[in-house]
Amino acid sequence: MAATKTAAAPQARGLALNIGLNSVSGAHYEGWTGPLAACEFDAKDMAALATGRGCKASVLLTKNATRAKVLAGLRSAAKTLVKGDFFLLSFSGHGGQVPDVSGEEADKLDETWCLWDGQLIDDELYLELGQFATGVRILVLSDSCHSGTVVRAGPPSAGAPPQMRSKMMPPSVGLRTYEAHKSFYDKLQQDVAKASAGTVVDPDEALAGVAVSTRLTKLAKRFRPRAILISGCQDNQSSYDGDHNGAFTARLLTVWNRGNFDGNYVSFHAHIKSGMPAIQTPNLYTMGPVVGFLKQKPFTV
Question: What dotted CATH number matches 14-294?
Answer without folding.
Answer: 3.40.50.1460
